[in-house]
Amino acid sequence: MEALIKRVVKGMLLLLIPLSLLSLFFAGWRFSLGILLGGGMGAGNLKGLAWSVRLFLGEEKAQAKMLVVSIFRFLILFTLLVVLAAAGVITIGGVLIGFTVVFVLVLKEGLFAARKEM
């Protein structure tokens, strides 16, 4: 699982940094920063999910514990996004692009890993 996360983070950096630099010229620094923060939050959320699975798997009531940790993690992400958007530091469109890039990379790496298993 650790190798999968490293490939996602590497791919994210290879895509998001040039995309963010390109958007800096067309959409401004807030949009560009939103792309980077969205990607970083997506990767951090993936790492947090992997951590909670490793920590609680095999324990009693593992699903309930992972649910509580996930809700807490999403609450922190939501609060951070609301504060940054309200302060005018980021744009939601940029964050959405950053999250989407990470989501697509997770799907791609998961598909490759599943095909390798067959």
TrEMBL record:
The lineage of its organism: Bacteria, Pseudomonadati, Nitrospirota, Nitrospiria, Nitrospirales. Keywords: Cell membrane, Membrane, Transmembrane, Transmembrane helix. Coiled coil: none annotated. The chain crosses the membrane at residues 12-29, 69-90. It is a multi-pass membrane protein. The keyword Transmembrane helix applies. This is ATP synthase subunit I. It comes from Candidatus Nitrobium versatile. GO terms for cellular component: plasma membrane. The keyword Membrane applies. It is found in: Cell membrane.
